[in-house]
C-alpha cells in the first residue's frame, strides 16, 4: 500500500471511530518509514502510538470533550439524545443526605486515579427513586455539569422493538457507546423496562430487555456514569438493586427546602409588600420542586406583563395553590 493510500486509510478509520484499525494503519506508516531508513521518525511514530494506546485503555480516563455521534453510528440518534448541561449541584435545592451522596460520587470520580492505585473504582452506577418533579432528571444533568461531560438520555421508545432480539442488540449498542463516549447515561422512567419479571402477561421483548440490561450493567467496565430513575421503585425487579453502587431517594421537599427554592428563584426581584416565604412554604408542603419552579415563573411573568417592577405576593400564593 502506497503512502497516499495509507494516509487515506488512516483518516477513514479515524472517521469511523475504529481505534484498532486506526492504530494498525498508523503502525504500517511507521514500518514504511523504517524501511526507508527514517529510523528516528519511525521510532517517534511508534512512541506516539504506544502513548495513544495507553490513554485509550485507561478505563477512567478523563475524556471530558463531547464526542459527536459518528455517521457510521446513525442508529444511535434513535436511541440517545445528547447535550452538554450548564447546571451544577449548587443550582439545585437538595435534601442534605441526597446532596452528600452526590458530592461523594463527584469526589470519587474526580480522584479516580488515586482510587485506582489501591485497585478501587469510583461509584458510577446510581438508581434514583422518588416522586415526580423532585430532581432526579436534573441531578443527572448537574453531575454531568460538575464533571464537564455530556448527558445521554436513553430514548426507551426507540429501544423497545416488537422484533425478537432487536431491542437487545440496541441495548448492546448503548453499552458499547458508554465505553467510547464518556458521559452520564440516563435511563429515565426505568420501571417501563425494569419491572418484576413475573408481573403481567408480557413474556416477550420487555423481559428480554430487562435480562439483557442486568447482564450488561453487571459486565460494564466503562468510565461513564449510569443513572436509572424511577417514580415506582416498588415495581422494579429485585435483581436490579444489587447492580447499582448506590440507591438514592429523592423525597418531596421539606419546609426549609421549599423556602430555599422560593428564595433562589425569586432573589432577583423585590415584593410589593413584606412577605414571609417560610410561612408560604409551610402552607404548601406536599408540592414538588417542579411545581414550585413553575409557580415562581408564573409570578415573575405576571409582574412583567402587568408592567410592574415588583412581585405580587398574592399572585405567588395563587400560583402555588393551583398546583396543590
UniProtKB/TrEMBL annotation:
This is ATP-binding protein. Keywords: ATP-binding, Nucleotide-binding. CDD domains: RecA-like_protease. Residues 122-254 form the AAA+ ATPase domain. The keyword ATP-binding applies. It comes from Aquiflexum gelatinilyticum. The lineage of its organism: Bacteria, Pseudomonadati, Bacteroidota, Cytophagia, Cytophagales. PANTHER family: AAA-FAMILY ATPASE, ATP-DEPENDENT ZINC METALLOPROTEASE FTSH. One of its GO terms (molecular function) is ATP hydrolysis activity.
Amino acid at each position: 500500500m502506497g503512502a497516499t493510500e495509507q494516509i487515506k486509510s488512516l483518516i477513514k478509520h479515524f472517521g469511523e471511530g475504529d481505534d484498532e484499525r486506526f492504530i494498525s494503519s498508523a503502525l504500517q506508516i511507521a514500518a514504511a518509514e523504517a524501511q526507508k531508513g527514517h529510523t528516528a521518525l519511525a521510532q517517534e511514530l511508534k512512541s506516539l502510538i504506544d502513548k495513544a494506546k495507553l490513554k485509550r485503555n485507561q478505563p477512567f480516563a478523563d475524556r471530558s470533550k463531547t464526542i459527536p455521534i459518528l455517521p457510521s453510528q446513525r442508529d444511535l440518534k434513535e436511541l440517545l439524545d445528547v447535550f452538554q448541561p450548564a447546571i451544577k449541584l449548587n443550582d439545585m435545592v437538595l435534601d442534605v443526605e441526597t446532596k452528600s451522596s452526590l458530592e461523594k460520587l463527584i469526589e470519587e470520580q474526580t480522584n479516580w486515579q488515586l482510587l485506582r492505585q489501591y485497585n478501587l473504582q469510583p461509584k458510577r452506577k446510581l438508581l434514583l427513586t422518588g416522586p415526580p418533579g423532585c430532581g432526579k432528571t436534573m441531578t443527572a444533568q448537574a453531575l454531568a455539569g460538575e464533571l464537564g461531560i455530556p448527558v445521554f438520555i436513553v430514548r426507551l421508545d426507540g429501544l423497545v422493538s416488537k422484533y425478537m432480539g432487536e431491542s437487545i442488540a440496541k441495548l448492546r449498542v448503548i453499552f458499547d457507546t458508554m465505553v467510547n463516549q464518556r458521559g452520564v447515561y440516563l435511563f429515565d422512567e426505568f420501571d417501563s423496562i425494569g419491572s418484576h419479571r413475573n408481573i403481567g402477561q408480557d413474556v416477550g421483548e420487555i423481559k428480554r430487555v430487562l435480562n439483557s440490561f442486568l447482564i450488561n450493567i453487571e459486565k460494564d467496565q466503562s468510565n461513564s456514569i449510569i443513572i436509572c430513575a424511577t417514580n415506582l421503585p416498588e415495581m422494579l425487579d429485585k435483581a436490579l438493586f444489587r447492580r447499582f453502587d448506590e440507591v438514592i431517594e429523592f423525597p418531596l421537599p421539606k419546609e426549609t427546602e421549599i423556602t430555599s427554592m422560593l428564595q433562589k428563584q425569586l432573589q432577583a426581584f423585590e415584593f410589593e409588600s413584606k412577605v414571609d416565604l417560610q410561612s408560604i412554604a409551610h402552607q404548601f408542603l406536599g408540592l414538588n420542586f417542579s411545581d414550585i419552579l413553575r409557580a415562581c415563573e408564573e409570578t415573575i411573568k405576571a409582574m412583567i406583563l402587568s408592567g410592574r417592577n415588583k412581585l405580587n405576593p398574592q399572585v405567588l400564593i395563587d400560583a402555588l395553590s393551583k398546583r396543590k
